[in-house]
Every structure is written in structure tokens, then in C-alpha cells.
UniProtKB/TrEMBL annotation:
UniProt-recorded name of the protein: Signal recognition particle protein
Cell compartment(s), UniProt: Cytoplasm
Primary localization: cytoplasm
InterPro entries for the chain: AAA+_ATPase (IPR003593), P-loop_NTPase (IPR027417), Signal_recog_part_SRP54_M_sf (IPR036891), Signal_recog_particl_SRP54_hlx (IPR013822), Signal_recog_particle_SRP54_M (IPR004125), SRP (IPR004780), SRP54 (IPR022941), SRP54_GTPase_dom (IPR000897)
Organism (species): Micrococcoides hystricis
């Protein structure tokens, strides 16, 4: 989403590199380039103005001539100011002292509320909460069914006493306020500690929509009202956010569709314009494409400093501890690494989500964006298909895989023999390296380490 902004900013900083000291003219020039990059990325004008003023003031104020590396100093200032406009500190969900905590979702139709409801409920469930989804969008055709499907995928129950509208021509009849109230009562009775209320949106902001959202909010005394906004809608994001802020006085923002290739700057302006923090972001249609929004990490990503913390968290979230222990034992016992182990590891990695998205979080990813864009997650499918085409014996003893076996595996997986050859070669290398590491008790070739 923020690729071109990221490219422009990193290019600006590159120009500063190697300068012994920065003159006022250097700072002016840099500020001008940053300003243009932000405006081209659709960041709202007042936000840009405030941003540039802050950067300039600090850059001129801090004694850059004495700084060890003035370019790095400027990056540091831009980074901190970027964190500021994104809302500063990470804002976590606030849970009610007496459960259930009521979370209500509001936003335009198509913003991604129903999808988000599923993701949020799964995320809460994975942390030991017992959420209940409540279907109050009785207006958009099939919204109730869609929530039920999402709930089923997430393994979270859905309270949906009213089927809602089933087709374009039908008039909405149900009372969403009553459903919301009944949903909270149901949660109390069945001891759910969190209630997530999905509400109706419309194509544009209007008074009826706002009144309904406000009525629900007041009726259930929502602890959190999350305003869900599609980051792809560009400049409209800011005006829509302002309207909802006045209409329902939301407590936090969720940015969706950050996986799109729109310019995204408007989404970056929402926190600054409304004074409400971005709390979550969504980057795809799958249940896993969901993250807590950390302003500092997002700033790092935009400035191409990588987001290693999120990577580690995703790994931890999806890592199977038993499988990790099994591998560690195997390693310690110096047993041979087999294709079955390889497959098991691939599946662990897959659980973390799209490989491409993961790689994009590495520091310096902007420099390899072209190659990363070409990375196809289906390459992993092909590797798995090849391993699946091997017999159980071949998987544990790959040495026996001769020419005719290779041809058979290639045919079975629908790939060229050269791909099977490549895989076997890489596998043998990995196997050797693991042996060496296990035997030497350390990384091969590391100074001071045996092996
Ligand atoms: P609602 O009207 O606000 O409930 O919106 P929906 O949850 O039905 O979402 C509208 C469409 O956007 C659906 O097709 C979703 O699959 C899709 N969608 C939701 N979130 C994302 C996201 O983060 N990325 C992408 N690419 N699509 C999304």
C-alpha cells in the first residue's frame, strides 16, 4: 500500500547520505521533497503542513552540524514525526471491568466490517477470550449469512435472531437496536466475555445511517466503537472519518485493504485528523490477514527499516510447539533431516500466511521490491507437490532417487525434471549443513566455533 511513498522517502534520504553537515538549504530542500512525496501519496493537506513544520523545526533546532551523521538524524526525526501522525503509542483494546466488553463496528458498506468481525473474534479467541458475534447488519443483502460463515470459520458463535435482507429488492424490517440489546443479554447469560456487534453501513454517509449507529451505541453502552475504513477510498477517507467521528464518536480506527495498491496516504491521515488512534489493520480477505496496528512499526515499514517485531509475532502465533520440540530433538540426536521434516516445516511457515507479505517486512525490502513482487506463493505449492509425489521411502532416503524416479516425481507434480533436480540439490545441501551444525554444536564457519 505505501510502496511509492516509501520509495520516495528513502530516495530523499539517500541524497543526504555522505553529506558531512547539512545547511539550512539542505534541510529546506529535503523538507520540500518530503512534502511533495506525502501530498502525492494523498496524505491530507493539513496533516502534511503540520508534519513538515515539525520536521523542519526539529531539524533546524537540533544541532545537525555536530551530529555524527546528519542524514541519520533527519531520518530519525522523520520517523518520530511519522509515528506521531499515526497516533503515537500503540493503543490496545480496553476491556470492561465487568464483562462482557461490548465492541461495535461502524463504517460504510463494503468497508470490511463483516470480514473484520470474523478476524477480530478469532484473534480474541486465540487469546483465551470467549467472544460472541452479533449480526445487526439487517440491511445489506446476505450480511447476516456472511457473518455466520465468518463466525463458523473463526470457530466463534453468532447471535443472529433476524435473517436480515436477502436480496436487493427487499425492504429492511428488523430492528438492529433490539438485536444488539438481545445479543448483549445473550452474552451475559452464556458468559461470553466479549461481544462484537456488526452494524449496517451505506454507500455514503447519511443521517439515517448515523442515527442508527448512534442508537445502537447508546443502547448497548459500547465500550469500544471501531470505525472501519477502506484504505483504498483515497481522499474520501478523511471526510468519511470526520463524519463518523462527529456522528458516533468512535474510540478507534481499523484500516482495511492495506494490501491494495492505492496510495494510502489518506488512511495515514485519519488518526491525525480525528484524534483517534488506529488500532488494527487488515491486509487481505483471509482470517489471518489481521494485525494490531503499531504506529512505530508502520513508520519503520514506510521508511524501509523493516518490521521484524511483527514477523516474530506472526511466527510465534502460528508456530506449533510440539512440532518445534520434535525438530529440536531430532537435531540434538543428529538424526537425518528427511523430506517429511521438510514438509512439516513448510507447513509451519505456511501457517504464518503469505510468504510474499512476510518477506516485505524485512528491512531493506524496498530495494528488492521488484524481485519480491515476482515471488509467487505458488512456488511453495510446487515444492509441496514434488514432495507429495515421492514415496514414503524416498522421503526418508532421498539418496535412492535416481533418474527414472526423478522423472516420475516430476510427472506426478506436473513440473519439469530440472525443478526436481534443483529441489534435491538444495535439500542435500541443507541436510549436510544441519548435520554439520548438530555435530559441531554451532553454526558452521563461525569463528571460534568448532565444526
Ligand atoms: P462490510 O459491508 O463493511 O461488512 O464489508 P465486507 O466485510 O463485506 O467486505 C467487503 C469486501 O471487501 C469483501 O469482498 C471482503 O472480502 C473484502 N475485504 C475485506 N477486508 C479486506 C482486506 O483487508 N483486503 C482485501 N483485499 N479485501 C478485503
Amino acid at each position: 500500500m505505501f510502496n511509492s511513498l516509501s520509495d520516495r522517502l528513502t530516495a530523499t534520504f539517500k541524497n543526504l547520505r555522505g553529506k558531512g553537515r547539512l545547511s539550512e538549504a539542505d534541510i529546506d530542500g529535503t523538507a520540500r521533497e518530503i512534502r511533495r512525496a506525502l501530498l502525492d501519496a494523498d496524505v491530507a493537506v493539513p496533516v502534511v503542513r503540520q508534519f513538515i513544520a515539525a520536521v523542519k523545526e526539529r531539524a533546524l533546532g537540533e544541532d545537525l552540524s555536530k551530529a555524527l551523521n546528519p542524514a541519520q538524524q533527519v531520518v530519525k526525526i522523520v520517523n518520530e514525526e511519522l509515528v506521531n501522525i499515526l497516533g503515537g503509542k500503540t493503543r490496545n483494546l480496553e476491556f470492561a471491568k465487568t464483562p462482557p466488553t461490548v465492541i461495535m463496528l461502524a463504517g460504510l458498506q463494503g468497508a470490511g466490517k463483516t470480514t473484520l468481525a470474523g478476524k477480530l473474534s478469532k484473534w480474541l479467541k486465540d487469546q483465551g477470550h470467549t467472544p460472541l458475534l452479533v449480526a445487526c447488519d439487517l440491511q445489506r443483502p446476505n450480511a447476516v449469512t456472511q457473518l455466520q460463515v465468518n463466525g463458523q470459520r473463526a470457530g466463534v458463535p453468532v447471535f443472529a435472531p433476524h435473517p436480515g435482507v436477502q436480496s436487493e429488492h427487499e425492504e429492511a424490517t428488523g430492528d438492529p437496536v433490539k438485536v444488539a440489546l438481545d445479543g448483549v443479554a445473550e452474552a451475559k447469560q452464556k458468559l461470553h466475555d466479549v461481544v462484537i456487534i456488526d452494524t449496517a453501513g451505506r454507500l455514503g454517509v447519511d443521517e439515517v445511517l448515523m442515527t442508527q449507529a448512534r442508537d445502537i451505541r447508546n443502547a448497548v453502552q459500547a465500550d469500544e466503537v471501531l470505525f472501519v475504513i477502506d484504505a483504498m477510498i483515497g481522499q474520501d477517507a478523511v471526510t468519511t472519518a470526520q463524519a463518523f467521528n462527529e456522528g458516533v464518536n468512535f474510540t478507534g480506527v481499523v484500516l482495511t485493504k492495506l494490501d491494495g495498491d492505492a496510495r494510502g496516504g489518506a488512511a495515514l491521515s485519519v488518526a491525525s485528523v480525528t484524534g483517534k488512534p488506529v488500532m488494527f489493520s487488515s491486509t487481505g480477505e483471509g482470517l489471518k490477514d489481521f494485525e494490531v496496528f503499531h504506529p512505530d512499526r508502520m513508520a519503520s515499514r514506510i521508511l524501509d527499516m523493516g518490521d521484524v517485531l511483527t514477523l516474530i509475532e506472526q511466527a510465534e502465533r502460528s508456530w506449533d510447539k510440539d512440532e518445534a520440540a520434535r525438530m529440536a530433538k531430532k537435531f540434538a540426536d543428529q538424526e537425518d533431516f528427511t523430506f517429511d521434516d521438510f514438509l512439516a516445516q513448510m507447513q509451519q511457515i505456511r501457517k504464518m500466511g503469505s510468504m510474499k507479505k512476510l518477506l516485505m517486512m524485512m528491512p531493506g525490502a524496498a530495494n528488492m521490491r521488484q524481485q519480491l513482487e515476482e515471488f509467487d506463493d505458488r512456488q511453495i505449492d510446487r515444492i509441496e507437490a514434488m514432495v507429495h509425489s515421492m514415496t514414503p521411502h524416498e522421503r526418508v532416503a532421498p539418496k535412492i532417487i535416481n533418474g527414472s524416479r526423478r522423472a516420475r516425481i516430476a510427472r506426478g507434480a506436473g513440473v519439469h525434471v530440472s525443478e526436481v533436480n534443483g529441489l534435491l540439490e538444495r535439500f542435500t545441501q541443507a541436510q549436510k549443513m544441519m548435520k554439520k551444525m548438530a555435530a559441531g554444536g554451532g553454526m558452521p564457519g563461525m569463528p571460534g566455533m568448532p565444526g
